[in-house]
Amino acid sequence: MTRLMTRLFAAALAVAMALPAHAFDTRARAAYVVDLGTGTVLLNKNADQPLPPASMSKLMTLYIAFEAIRDGRLSAEDRLPVSQHAMSYGGSTMFLDTTDRVRVEDLLRGIIVLSGNDACAVIAEALSPDGTEAGFARYMTQRAQKLGMTNSNFTNSNGWPAVGHRMSMRDLALLATHIIQDFPQFYPLFAEREFQFDGRAPQNVRNRNPLLGLGIGADGLKTGHTEEAGYGLVGSAKQGDRRVVFVISGLPTTQSRAEESEAIANWAFRQFAQKRVIEAGTVVAQADVWMGAADKVGLTVAEDVSTLLPVLAGDKVDAEVIYHGPIQAPVKAGQPVGELVFTPEGLPETRVPLVAAADVAYGGFVVRVKTAALHLLDRLNQPPAPAG
Fold first, then answer.
1. Of 61-75, 265-279, 344-358, which range is least confident?
2. Which of 57, 83, 115, 128 is catalytic?
3. CA 240, chain centre distance (Å)
């Protein structure tokens, strides 16, 4: 394996490296912040620790409901019955009772805006493999695993405190990302600030997300609170072409949750900027070629490469070119031949595939003889191996 150092200049600038990026000093027990466009993790604090997610786990129930509507197994206009079990939930509810048959669209809004525990149970029983909320919770866990959420386990549909009901902050961020990307038709529901269902609960009509309406681009997703979990938030905000997803948990008050989530969102946008570090077709290094008509080939990227950089770090990025060399001829332009690895100050490394910039044909007879002779001379010039 051959390694070469190179230097990239974002947006063709050459500004010297300045101060490193500093991680946000969050008060949350656990936190995770990711830039969606680049996949760059900006903050990771206990992000893989399974914790009680409270109502933030309602996002999994919503995701499964969105899937069912997309697949035609459920309609937004369907009216679902309310069981005694669903009606029995306390905490945040839509105040449903067993005489109701509620539209799915109203149930979804009741979950998103009002955080209705009863609404979750109604959806759960309608989509459960065995008709029970417990059966739906087992399905939630299975579906989460398939989505890559390896630190999640569900025992109910709404986050009601229960032994073993756990999610990690990374899993919640992954789930939020899937909702945003997989169901853009439903995502605007998360920005609704008020929902009045049948005039039943005038004290519970407002979305608890403290970031909505602050003018920072926040448009989702879900708050959560129990005594064990503390106050948490799965949030997302978009400014310009950038979208950030952030998850916090374990705050002591609603006020601290509001302050911390706003501060994290502002930090993520103000302290980092997405910049183009290399254009497609730009040769970043030369690789040795074995038995080729040319002894070297340029290495380049197939597409423009952008990355997230700390704004205080300037635009200069040190990078490492890695390839297995020499590369055996013939070589085709666009053939994958290595990787470009760069690590902006204070951020995780980014790996980008490198491809050959041009064709290199297999060498003719003279080239092959010359190469073989050089190889033989190189072996003859090596010191003898020590005697056993």
1. 344-358
2. 115
3. 18
